[in-house]
Amino acid sequence: xxxxxxxxxxxxxxxxxxxxxxxxxxxxxxxxxxxxxxxxxxxxxxxxxxxxxxxxxxxxxxxxxxxxxxxxxxxxxxxxxxxxxxxxxxxxxxxxxxxxxxxxxxxxxxxxxxxxxxxxxxxxxxxxxxxxxxxxxxxx
Length: 140
Prior knowledge:
Elements: H1 8-20, E1 28-31, E2 34-37, E3 47-52, E4 55-60, E5 63-67, H2 70-80, E6 86-92, E7 95-102, E8 108-112, E9 122-128
Antiparallel strand pairs: 1-2, 2-3, 3-4, 4-5, 6-7, 6-9, 7-8
């Protein structure tokens, strides 16, 4: 296992920055190297930020991205928590075969399976987290 002890101060700072952008009603699980924000409802998706093997990993539902720079990972994590971000998943039967992440910027990122049961019925499922944005009472 790789020794990340020299990265710990920066790691803790990034985790704290990530927690600062988590919507007020979201349930977040935090450990020493990761933050997992649970989906807002059954029709939502999980979002996580983790540090492993010297780089950052952001997961948005089944999609994931690797980042060398923590600032890029935080920007991706922040975008994934936006209520404007949604997933469109093509399913064959109940098996997801392709997922597109639609980002607030208009960009689309995709992930898919190499093989799919093409003979099964096709359906398109949209997932979105509907966070309750809690206003800061001091800013009112």
